[in-house]
Write a structure and sequence with these properties.
This is HIRAN protein. With 124 residues, this protein is α+β, with helices and mostly antiparallel strands. Helices cover 23% and strands 35% of the residues. Strands 1-6-5-2-3-4 form a 6-stranded antiparallel β-sheet. It is globular.
Length: 124
């Protein structure tokens, strides 16, 4: 509870310092990419770089998860935000909030959950 208050106070201080012309980008999620091994990620592995922009697309009609957020790189589906971690991002997207994502880390690993780390930001 104390951490939440400190975090909220820090955020409010940052917001009060921003002018109307500036925006603040907050990191709201850092997570692995779910389903990487099933989509276009392996085909584009050599081309992708940390820092590359990712597109997030809501899939409210997804039969497996009504909060599904698809992750694309240059128009190709790479996977999804993990189901256990997509609620806040899906809700923000549904509200029309400005959400963006980037590749944070790429690494060769036997476990596909360890290959791509993505970061999701909300712009205030």
């Amino acid at each position: 509870m104390r951490f939440a208050r400190i975090s909220l106070l820090s955020t409010l201080c940052l917001l009060s310092m921003a002018t109307a012309a500036e925006s603040i980008r907050l990191l709201v999620q850092s997570s692995p990419l779910a389903g990487f091994q099933y989509y276009a990620g392996t085909a584009h592995w050599e081309e992708m770089r940390p820092g590359d922009r990712l597109d997030l697309i809501r899939e409210p009609d997804n039969p497996h998860d009504p909060r599904a957020v698809r992750v694309e790189w240059r128009g190709d589906k790479l996977g999804y935000l993990p189901r256990k971690e997509n609620q806040a991002v899906a809700a923000e997207m549904d509200r029309g909030g400005q959400v963006e994502a980037r590749i944070a880390r790429l690494r060769q690993h036997r476990n596909p959950w360890q290959r791509v780390l993505i970061e999701v930001y909300v712009t205030l």
